[in-house]
Amino acid sequence: MNRIFPSVIVLAIVLVTLWVLIANIFFTVDERELAVVLQFGEPIAGFTEPGLKWKLPFIHEVRRFPKTYQFWLGTGGEILVDVPTADGKKIEVTPWAIWRITDPVQFVRELRTVANGELRIKEFVRSQLRDAITANNLVEVVRSSDRKLSYTLQVGMLGGESSQVPNEQMVVAQELTRTTAGTAVASEVERVRLGREKLVAQVKAAVRERLHRGSKGEEIRRGIELVDMGIARVDFVPTVQEAAFKRLIAFLESVAAYYVNEGQRRKQEILNMTHYEVEKILGEGKREANRIRGQVEAEIIQMYADAIRQMGEFYDFIRTLEMYKKCFGPNTRLVVTTESEIFALFRRLSPVPGEPEAVAGATSSSTPAVPVVEETRE
């Protein structure tokens, strides 16, 4: 028993030593990783393919780096601010870039860490992009072709076809591209000579060239590659943006005022037309009523005339009786002659049978006297 125990201890020590040696000799590289073997801090070998690798224990050190694409997006202080374009407009540009490590050994020699690699990519992209923007007009940064600008949203908002919208209201896009400090420039859309896509392609080529050049122009290998880059966002600087929003607000208010005035004008036109139609109908009605009334009155007068012609004596008789009724009351006294017109009806009456003819004759042969002497009413 005492002889077996030391043997077990020795075996255990040997196994542990072998395990430590194996762990320090062999290592694996994942398919998403790159590995660099360092000897006293200097890279001596790089591994880009996955598998089981080996190194000298306690002398070599393994450093791992991502093999996948690295994405960088400008945020905070990394955004390009107050970048002046060639036509004098100041903008803010948010760039982005995709890069990767292609040669881990050169990467360690020149940049050492992933953070340094990203810093170099960021530095080159921002520098080249700023130079390209300052050398071109704003239209080259925001547009890629001379395609006609679409005003569908604006026309829908204004309510109508584009042919019905006044020309002075079809300038929303131009209003957003006016110059800084409140100074207006021509609102015509400029012709695109280069375009955003070609501009970004030029910047990408310049960044790739700088990645292989030193500060003095000498050729240098950094072990990284720029896969792609672009512009995530383009904004006016806050002062210009606020001024642009104010101009757009004023413009839309003018559009609203235009349609309010147009509505009032159309309303007044409709009211005037309605009033005209009402007056026309009333005038025609009055004219027709007067015509009918005149026609009826003429017919009535004609009927009176016909009745008078046919029954003239009877009409005179009736009118005389009406006059007697109105003139004579129970206590009326008249002092007139018998020749007065008021008694003309009685003079024409025939004598009643049995009455003395002398009465009628005396009445008819009376001497005329003064027409009206006295009239009294009690």
Task: Give a written overview of the molecule.
Among the domains are: 66 residues, no CATH class; 129 residues, Band 7 domain (Tetrahydropterin Synthase, Chain A); 53 residues, no CATH class. The C terminus is likely disordered. The termini are far apart. It contains eleven helices and eleven strands. It is α+β, with helices and mostly antiparallel strands and 378 residues long.
Tell me the layout of helices and strands.
Layout: H1 4-25, E1 26-29, E2 33-39, E3 42-47, E4 51-54, E5 60-66, E6 70-73, E7 80-84, E8 90-101, H2 104-110, H3 114-134, H4 138-142, H5 152-158, H6 172-175, H7 196-211, E9 224-236, H8 238-310, H9 312-327, E10 332-336, H10 344-347, H11 357-364, E11 372-377
Antiparallel strand pairs: 1-4, 2-3, 2-5, 6-8, 7-8, 8-9, 10-11
Helix pairs in contact: 3-7
Kindly list the characteristics that best describe this protein.
single chain, 378 residues, alpha+beta, Tetrahydropterin Synthase, Chain A, 11 helices, disordered C terminus
Question: What are the low-pLDDT stretches, counting only 5+ consecutive residues below 50?
Answer: 152-166, 168-187, 358-378
How many strands appear in the DSSP assignment? Answer: 11
Shape: rod-shaped
| Oligomeric state of shown chains | single chain
* Gyration radius, in Å: 60 Å
Note the run of SSEs as H and E. Answer: HEEEEEEEEHHHHHHEHHEHHE
Helical run tally: 11
Q: What's the mean pLDDT score?
A: 79
User: Percentage of helical residues?
Assistant: 40-55%
CATH architectural designation of the domain at 69-149 and 189-236: 2-Layer Sandwich
Largest sheet: 4 strands, antiparallel
Give the class from helix and strand content and strand pairing. Answer: alpha+beta
Beta fraction: 15-25%
CATH third-level topology of the domain at 69-149 and 189-236: Tetrahydropterin Synthase, Chain A
CATH 4th-level superfamily of the domain at 69-149 and 189-236:
Band 7 domain
* Spatial separation of the terminal alpha carbons: 179 Å
